[in-house]
Amino acid sequence: MSLLNDTGMYILLMKRVLVQPDRWRMFFRQFPKELEKLGLQSLPIVIIISGFIGAIMTIQTKLNTSNPLLPTYTTGLVTRDTLLLEFSSTIMCLILAGKVGSNIASEIGTMRITEQIDALEIMGVNSANYLILPKITAFVVMMPFLVIFSMGIGLVGGYFVSVFTNVISTADYLTGIQYAFIPYYVFYSVIKSLIFAFLITSVAAYYGYYARGGALDVGKASTNAVVNSSILILFFNLLVTSLMLG
């Protein structure tokens, strides 16, 4: 019953959010701020995690595929396709769900318990649209760039392994990441990232918007936002993969 209730309230909230803003000037004032806060400020964690994962993936793939029957470029090929198909879209979005989702839920939840949202409603402002739409739009716009950036940094991390270690030669690695490249994989990851970005922001905003009580309840809202958006990301990952690659 709680699931049905939450789903219904979420849909009703999105009906209020996804409408034309009452004042476009206010929307475009908030939009660049959200681009920076949700997108640009997420770049450091994307760079660090993608670089290390690309390097680790290259080392582990090489160590576990040391077979004379396999081509020498296999390591680069496996690293590239893993980054393109799953890590940079799904795993990176799961990580950002923790950072961005908790940020949104706590921010909106704090506004709710300090009655700032009630004040907006009294002034006749569609508070859901005013607070949530710029966040959703900004993160959906930024996420494909973060995903593509993650792919590039991950491949660079693997390249550094080939340059600074004896695990794999640079020539073999570069051959592998270029061999049989399928551009559709990038398109597939971008489509997934758009869906996941919407899920992260909208679910986090839902839990923050309906937070009740005190500071402890804001913390619970943040936790619920991260957990439930992560579950939805995994579910939609399965759904989208079966539709686009099945």
Give a quick precis of the structure.
The protein is mostly helical and 246 residues long. It has nine helices and no strands.
Secondary structure tally: strands: 0
Question: Can you tell me the number of structural domains?
Answer: 1
Largest sheet: number of strands, sense, barrel closure: none
**Fraction of residues in H or I helices:** over 70%
Number of helices: 9
End-to-end Cα distance: 33 Å
Tell me the series of helices and strands, N- to C-terminal: HHHHHHHHH
Low-confidence stretches: none
User: What is the mean predicted local confidence, pLDDT?
Assistant: 90
Overall spatial form? elongated
Beta-strand content estimate: under 5%
- CA radius of gyration: 21 Å
Structural class: mainly alpha
Highlighted features:
elongated, mainly alpha, 9 helices, about 85% helix, about 250 residues
What does this structure look like?
With 246 residues, the protein is mostly helical. It has one domain (30-244). The protein contains 9 helices and no strands. It has helices at 2-17, 24-39, 43-64, 74-113, 116-122, 127-164, 170-178, 184-209, 215-244. The relative contact order is 0.17. The model has no long low-confidence stretch (mean pLDDT 90).
